[in-house]
Design brief:
Blueprint (H helix, E strand, L loop, with lengths): L9 E6 L4 H15 L3 E8 L5 H8 L6 H21 L7 E6 L4 H7 L1 H15 L3 E5 L6 H16 L5 E5 L11 E2 L4 H13 L1 H16 L3 E4 H4 L21 E7 L2 E6 L5 E3 L5 E3 L10 E7 L12 E4 L1
Parallel strand pairs: 1-2, 1-4, 2-3, 4-5
Antiparallel strand pairs: 5-7, 6-7, 8-9, 8-12, 10-11, 12-13
Amino acid sequence: MLPTLDRQTRLLVIAPHPDDETIGAGGLLQQVREAGGEVRIWLLTDGDNNPWPQRWLERRIWIGQAARERWGRRRRAEVVQAMSALGLAPEQLEGFSWPDMGLTGLLRGQFAAMLTLFEARLRAWCPNVVVLPDLGDRHPDHGTAHVLTRLALAREALSPTLLTYLVHGGAAAQQAEVLPSSDAYQAAKRQAMEAHASQLALSGTRMRRLIERPETFTCLEAARSGPLLSRQLPWSPPVWLQPGLRLTLAGSVGVRRWSWRRAPLVRDREGRWALIAEATPDTGPYFVKLHMDLPSPWIFDTWGWHEIS
């Protein structure tokens, strides 16, 4: 069930990239503001690793570090314009400037620092409603943003209402609820999307279609009220692919990585793989990711993250 919005609402929206705040929660942000609640948006990256629209708009082929930083500043400014269309002030935005398309690598290499920063800001803000990307979102930055937020909340022993939104791929959970909207809210969302002009240059049709979708959220506790989580993995990779696969396990005490063949796995009679109990010695939550450490032009995850007990 979606929470009641009033003056006591302290909403935090986790946006991995500029435009996620508008696509994922543009209507909700407006409704909390009108209810008298408080709002913060955490922008994890500046969206600077976005080469094809940049090549098109700047008429360039090579994108060096300076050009990439300039593009990030442009996209950061677009967020502020979009927030204005939603009735929000620039000071309600907190930027992290972490690497676009690099949150998973950062999580593996700088887990403690990332979590410490998240925890400090959570203590300072103390939200009672947190909107975060769905774990099933196929963009790697979105899935990792979910993992980082969940682990930081667990370490701080905070239990706000958790609502997830889905942008890239997959289907919303059966328990997902549509946020009631109005013509005025929708018009403001359209205006906010137009502020993200850099993203409309090559993908205008797709982006405007995303904006026209009903705003849908899954309450995390409701989504987990069905079958209990297990250590079973959802993947059964073919033998020929296994030598190149890596498994990453993220929990409140840190991150562990193995090659598939060295991972602490067992297999049942039906061929399903599961982590052995010793791999998760402390309290959860735990998240596991299957991946390959090979460069690819495809930005979306093949396997993504999965929550286990």
